[in-house]
Amino acid sequence: MTLKTLTAVLHREDDMYVAECPEVGTVSQGKTIDDALANLKEATELYLEEFPMPHIEKPLMTTFEAAVNA
Q1: Has residue 70 been placed in a domain?
Q2: What is the spatial distance between Cα 48 and Cα 42, in angstroms, rounded to a whole number?
């Protein structure tokens, strides 16, 4: 077994946190950030058991500003 560090992107939807792993495409949710991350980890590990991950470079993550008409 090999451990690989993956990325989790989280956002809040109503009363839940949604977590996504962009390298694999898995998504999960939870009532807390910790729950969402734990559920994402489980979903990702189950997915990777069935579909092994090829070597993928770490995604470049950044932020940007956009004008929004309020």
Answers
A1: no
A2: 10
46 found inside a domain:
yes
pLDDT digits (tens, 9 = 90+) for 27-65: 999 999 999 999 999 999 999 999 987 776 777 888 889
pTM assigned to the model: 0.83
Domain count, the chain: 1
The pair phi, psi for residue 43, each rounded to 5°, is -60, -40
The DSSP line for 9-67 is EEEEETTEEEEEETTTTEEEEESSHHHHHHHHHHHHHHHHHHSPPPP-PPPP-------
